């Protein structure tokens, strides 16, 4: 079991070989939750909710800012919710991932100009902040959206924009919904402190995808599982606990950091909370997924200060 450590202990992160390390050179494990799309579920990307994930052992929070589906592209004011969530996570000594959550806008290049402006602003704002990671494209997907023709050129535009302000770790999505890490690894980016994202859903993806990840790692590519779920790839079905066990054991073996999809109360099996949960949720609001995910956190509760009826997460779940 790992001891809980946050930004104060680990400090600014670096990529060394295929591993994330802290400012003193020790290997880092980030383990936590991803929000759902904050255009729908910003309630659970607020301080009380993020703090509950910390009490359950999380040391990272991923802020999923959808670009499509009513997200940033049509509602840029949503960036204010990103800032608030990032500030909240940092104030809790947790790492925060700013996720440009492309999905229905399959090709990251199609809105690269807007992404550049967004990340210029965010990296300027958080340039001196050791707790922030930048995820420049959630899941490139769709026919013709290849590493060489779309994702790599996009990354080569975005990374220098962020590097103008900070050396922070940058997470780069891969084609095929961030599954083709091996293809990216075969034609890597020429920048430091870059990791490739591997996304998996335990009810859909198994050994074949783990093999792609093994290939990527053995060719020297650092991998970060910035989104994984206990459900099928569409967010429903399951909960697939046996298959999730195999995945988490695999991530542990390679010290791969991870964020679970998702911290919301949507009526779907990948959601960690039951429908109708409040912002300041507790153990009784956890769904089957939430119970599983928090029971498997690599850092378990470290100092729970029970107050009033706030005794969630003590004892076995
Ligand atoms: C990814 C997306 C994420 C999506 C989850 C689960 O998509 F990054 O946004 O979340 O995985 O599908 C789902 C929510 C739903 C919501 C829907 C659309 O859970 O509540 O309605 O997004 O906003 C993936 C991942 C993998 C694959 C396909 C998708 N795959 N996908 O392997 O085929 O189609 O969204």
Describe the overall structure.
- The structure is a single chain.
- This protein is an alpha/beta fold.
- It has one domain (7-259): Glycosidases (TIM Barrel, Alpha-Beta Barrel), CATH 3.20.20.
- It is 33% helix and 17% strand.
- It has 11 helices and 10 strands.
- It has helices at 7-10, 38-41, 47-55, 78-91, 112-126, 147-163, 175-178, 181-186, 207-218, 241-253, 288-295, and strands at 14-16, 19-21, 31-35, 60-66, 95-101, 132-135, 170-172, 194-201, 223-229, 258-263.
- The strands form 2 sheets. It has an 8-stranded parallel β-barrel, surrounded by 5 helices. Strands 1-2 form a two-stranded antiparallel ribbon.
- α5 runs parallel beside α6 (147-163).
- The longest helix has 17 residues, at 147-163.
- The protein is globular, with a radius of gyration of 18 Å.
- The relative contact order is 0.15.
- The model is unreliable at 302-317 (pLDDT under 50).
- Residues 37, 69, 103, 138-139, 177, 199, 204, 227, 233-235, 261-262, 266, 268, 270 line the site of 2,4-dinitrophenyl-2-deoxy-2-fluoro-beta-D-cellobioside (DCB).
């Amino acid at each position: 079991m790992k001891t809980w450590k946050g930004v104060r202990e680990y400090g600014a992160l670096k990529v060394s070989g295929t591993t994330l390390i802290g400012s003193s050179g020790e290997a880092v494990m980030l383990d936590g939750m991803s929000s759902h799309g904050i255009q729908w579920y910003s309630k659970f990307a607020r301080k009380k909710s993020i703090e509950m994930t910390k009490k359950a052992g999380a040391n990272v929070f991923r802020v999923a800012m959808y670009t499509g589906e009513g997200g940033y592209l049509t509602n840029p004011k949503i960036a204010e919710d990103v800032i608030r969530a990032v500030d909240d996570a940092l104030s809790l000594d947790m790492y925060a991932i700013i996720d440009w959550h492309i999905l229905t806008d399959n090709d990251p290049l199609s809105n690269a100009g807007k992404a550049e402006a967004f990340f210029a602003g965010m990296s300027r704002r958080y340039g001196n902040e050791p707790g922030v990671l930048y995820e420049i494209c959630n899941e490139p997907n769709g026919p013709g959206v290849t590493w060489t023709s779309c994702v790599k050129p996009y990354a080569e535009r975005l990374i220098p924009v962020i590097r103008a302000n900070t050396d922070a770790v940058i997470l780069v999505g891969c084609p095929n919904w961030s599954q083709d890490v091996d293809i990216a690894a075969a034609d890597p980016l020429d920048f430091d402190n870059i990791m490739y994202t591997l996304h998996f859903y335990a009810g859909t993806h198994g050994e074949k995808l783990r093999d792609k990840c093994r290939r990527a790692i053995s060719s020297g590519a650092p991998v970060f599982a910035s989104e994984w779920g206990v459900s099928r790839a569409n967010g429903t079905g399951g909960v697939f606990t046996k298959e999730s066990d195999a995945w988490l054991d695999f991530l542990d073996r390679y010290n791969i950091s991870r964020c679970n999809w998702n911290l919301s109360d949507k009526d779907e099996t990948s959601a960690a909370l039951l429908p109708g949960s409040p912002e300041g949720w507790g153990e009784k609001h956890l769904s089957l997924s939430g119970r599983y995910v928090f029971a498997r956190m690599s850092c378990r509760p470290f100092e729970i200060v029970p107050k009033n009826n706030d005794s969630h997460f003590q004892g076995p779940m």
